[in-house]
Amino acid sequence: MPIQHIPASEELFKSGLLINTPVQARSNARVTALLDAAAKVVHEKGYEELTTANVAEAAGASIGTVYRYFEDRVKVLEALAIRNLERADRRFLDALEQIDGSAPKDAINVMFEMYLDMFRTEPGFRSLRLGDVLDIRPRNREPRLTTAARTMTEQLSVRFGFANNAATVLEVEKALVAVDAYLARAFFNDDRGDVVFIDSARASVMSLSRIAN
């Protein structure tokens, strides 16, 4: 599964997860390489087996380089989850541009196919996903599936007249929670995904077309 070398983002820099914020391209590339290495470890071993030592080894870096930017393994996982959310948002918005003017069900299907493809192609995604699987206390942020639901609701509102309110966000989030759970099961021990659970995931999210105005 190939690694996409996309530079670390401003959202990550603003998150407070990094001990030192990169100010030069070289430092940015180093953080990106560490996250790429972390994704590789998570893909091969699962997020519970990730350590700062195996991130350093996978990146071909010293353990000191990891600790220069990340306090511990949990911060690495949180940073990787932020990157997963950003990549999902970017891919969703890019895909929507290709179907502008289509029916709501087409946009919803694009969202589903994009998320499904991330399970298949994004290293470590099927294990960590958007990071809500991490039990980190205190819980000082909203679930990232809620954040994703807000983004999707905004786009459905702008493009297709869905009501952009709390009730719609809740309906979208419930569908995304179901999709996330079904796909996690679909890819539990199948690299292509169990079609029975993939179809159940698709049915869950396609039901959103009923709430179009």
TrEMBL record:
Pfam families the UniProt entry points to: TetR_C_22, TetR_N
InterPro entries from the entry? Homeodomain-like_sf (IPR009057), HTH-type_TetR-like_transc_reg (IPR050109), HTH_TetR (IPR001647), TetR_C_22 (IPR041674)
- Provide the HTH tetR-type domain boundaries: 28-88
Gene Ontology molecular function, alphabetical? DNA-binding transcription factor activity; transcription cis-regulatory region binding
Q: Which Gene3D superfamilies match?
A: Tetracycline Repressor, domain 2
**Keywords assigned by UniProt?**
DNA-binding, Transcription, Transcription regulation
| UniProt name for this protein | Unannotated protein
Q: Which organism was this protein described from?
A: freshwater metagenome
